[in-house]
Amino acid sequence: MLTEALLPLFRRSPATSRILNISSQLGLLNKVSDPELKRLLQDEERLTEAEVEGMASRFLAQVKDGTWRGQGWPKVWTDYSVSKLALNAYARVLARRLQARGDRVSVNCFCPGFTRTDMTRGWGKRTAEEAAEIGVRLALLPPGELPTGTFFKWCTPQLYSKL
Fold this sequence. Notes:
Blueprint: H1 2-12, E1 17-22, H2 35-42, H3 49-65, H4 78-101, E2 105-111, H5 128-139, E3 150-153, E4 156-157
Parallel strand pairs: 1-2, 2-3
Antiparallel strand pairs: 3-4
């Protein structure tokens, strides 16, 4: 994974390094209806990278054999939503791991909102430039205001979901 490959460089930086993932609120836990999966992903202290990979592998296997419907996965843009669910979970696990090591690396995700892109076929409330501006503002937060393991909707930390 690119992030893992870059971690040694981030750790050597004299300043706090920042990993900021463009995600989506479609990848939040409130989109999951499988209680077991939701419980696994909500366990902030014990969730592991292997469990996140296992979740993604389970989804892919169910898609391959045609059994994914009715299994508690997000209902809207399911493949995209599951990819963002995995990204948010991995970011939370990575943030916890780096914080425990004392590394000065913040790991966060943000949703820029419904953005006009090729993927949305030109639909959306924001331009790509406006979405990028949100990312830049978050990336440039002063170190004292910089959280880790947080999901931002636009520029606001979401209290209902810490990723």
